[in-house]
Amino acid sequence: MSTEHKWITTPITAELLRGALDLERTEHGVLPHRLPARARAQNTDGQLAMAEAQPSGVRLVFRTRATAIELEARRTQRIYVGAPPRPDGLYDLLVDGVPAGQASVPGGDTLTVDMAAGTMERESGPSGSLRFDGLSDAVKDIEIWLPHNEATELLALRTDAPVEGAPDHGRRVWLHHGSSISHGSDAASPTTTWPALAASLGGVELINMGFGGGALLDPFTARAMRDTPADLISVKFGINIVNADLMRLRAFAPAVHGFLDTIREGHPTAPLLVISSILCPIHEDTPGPCAPDFSDISEGKIRFRAVGDPAERAAGKLTLGVIRDELSRIVKQRAATDANLHYLDGRDLYGEEDFAELPLPDALHPDAAAHRRIGERFAAQVFASDGPFAAERS
Questions:
Q1: Does residue 126 have a cis bond before it (omega within 30 degrees)?
Q2: What is the mean pLDDT of each run of 10 residues along the chain (394 residues)?
């Protein structure tokens, strides 16, 4: 650690974090989680455990006169067998809401993933530090958005002036659940995932429960949403359920009803938006499962393909088209007695024309430019004066 500043170390507590549902005490620091301990105890899926510990939407928020800020952390970097190294996770700095810098933390643990064998192997590594300096000595609100795609254990926050909690600006809280696309997939940085962009444009505080591979109608996720204070709620279903070939139509509709029922137990009148999948041609009319294609992995490219048979729809296998029809039907049925329940077709956020201009690089996930488009469209439609999240509705 550098000695050119007289550092003040501030304990990292839940009061300094936004967007996390739990803070696990570790041997050396704290680990933010996006599912509470009770939900994690009921989960047996390693993919979901990895995803919920990646702090998409989680940020350190405080007020200070500091001109220099140093954060010590231990990341968990993923390495995919046969593929080139992934780029380092980024931390985005906002000062009074304005982007003011980016940095990465070196070192950390590594998680080697062999997608062909379906295995993961962890190796421990040292912590690292990042620094933002040259800041104004005026009182200012600081936000440090943690990497959306790397599990991040926070060890120490050091500043050259005292830190206090940031004030509550009275912004509404938006609680969102979805798949890897909501998690951030191939977004450029934590503040440019589509939910983070939409939240910024909508002037709301984001809690992002987008989990890569994990939007599967899990009851423990519904209970976590039920128990989380929020003013606005959205759920985005489709792609993971088809990817995993998880269930048939007979199970899907009751599972959706049950998920929405659980949310309504804790949020009986909050605006609740059900969103279907964005356009994904491989699964529009072809059921799952989804399988990776490793033929170009040495060039850092993995593509996905649907391996189901379209004829199996007659037996209840799900496609994105089938799920959109069912979600629309369910919302229409429930809205007869729930005026605050709304539906959004995901193709209104990213559809055929968008796919022609900004195709999904791996046939499944939008790139950084598409994330921006989706976020801007969501904000324009949903936070508009006549949209389901309009201020006068809540």
A1: no
A2: 76 97 96 98 95 98 98 91 81 97 94 80 92 97 97 97 93 98 96 98 98 98 98 98 97 98 98 98 97 76 91 96 98 98 98 98 96 98 97 70
